[in-house]
Each structure stands twice: as structure tokens, then as C-alpha cells.
Specification:
mainly alpha, Non-ribosomal Peptide Synthetase Peptidyl Carrier Protein, Chain A, two-stranded antiparallel sheet, 2 strands, 72% helix
Length: 141
């Protein structure tokens, strides 16, 4: 029974959609790392400078201060702000990527529609009949 299971699993994993999904997840993870760096290392310091040196990552509401035996209990809403900005940036970049893709797709469709359709190739019989017709017209004159 285990060989049947592994055979089915191998068939499932080898399907094109699963491979495409795996590639998408890997690229998405790499893209997330880039976006996190953009947010944390470039955008948030600029926002912090504008807001007087405030670092959103440090923003929190302390519910219970730290003691020698217990860690601080706090609501870290600054991390939420960072996550929201990160999400908005990823959404914005994806919007521009999809928009560019759709623009190229529409441009290709317009070029294909504007190009004249090639004339259908005449069969040898039609070409021969046209030649005969032309010869008969010349002989009548």
C-alpha cells in the first residue's frame, strides 16, 4: 500500500501546476524579503525622520512592565503598521506588474488585429484556370 501511495504522490508532484505553484511560492518568498528590506531599511527611516525620529517598530502599549522574572507584556501596534505598509507596497508593485503585463497583452492584440490577414494561398488548379482565362482573353483581342 505504501508503494501505491508514493506512486500517486510522485504523479501528483510531477504535474505542471504543482511545479508552477512551487516556483511561485519561492519567488514570492524572495520578493517578500526584498519588500521587507525596502520597508524596514528605506521607507520606515524616512517616515521616522518626517515624524521626528519615531521608529514604528518600537511603538507599543505596555500592559505589564518587565520584571526580573517576567518579560514585558505589550501590544506592539508599530509592527502592525510596518506590516500594513509592507502589504500596501507589495500590492502596489503587483498592481504595476499586472498593469504592464495587460498593457503589453493589449498592444499585441491590437498589432495582430491591425496586421492584414495573409491572402489564402491559391491551389494549383485555380492558378492553372486563371492562366487559361488570361490566355483566352488575349486570344480574343
Amino acid at each position: 500500500m505504501s508503494s501505491k501511495f508514493f506512486g500517486e504522490f510522485k504523479k501528483f508532484i510531477a504535474r505542471g501546476n504543482v511545479i508552477d505553484l512551487a516556483v511561485g511560492v519561492i519567488i514570492g518568498a524572495a520578493f517578500t524579503a526584498i519588500t521587507n528590506s525596502l520597508v524596514n531599511d528605506i521607507i520606515m527611516p524616512v517616515i521616522g525622520l518626517i515624524t521626528g525620529g519615531m521608529d514604528f517598530a518600537d511603538m507599543r502599549i505596555i500592559l505589564k512592565p518587565a520584571t526580573e522574572s517576567a518579560a514585558e507584556v505589550a501590544i506592539r501596534y508599530g509592527a502592525l503598521i510596518n506590516a500594513v505598509i509592507n502589504f500596501l507596497l507589495v500590492s502596489l508593485v503587483l498592481f504595476f506588474v499586472v498593469k504592464a503585463f495587460n498593457t503589453l497583452k493589449e498592444k499585441n492584440k491590437k498589432e495582430e488585429a491591425a496586421a492584414p490577414a495573409p491572402a489564402p494561398k491559391k491551389s494549383d488548379d485555380v492558378i492553372l484556370l486563371e492562366e487559361i482565362r488570361d490566355l483566352l482573353k488575349e486570344n480574343r483581342k
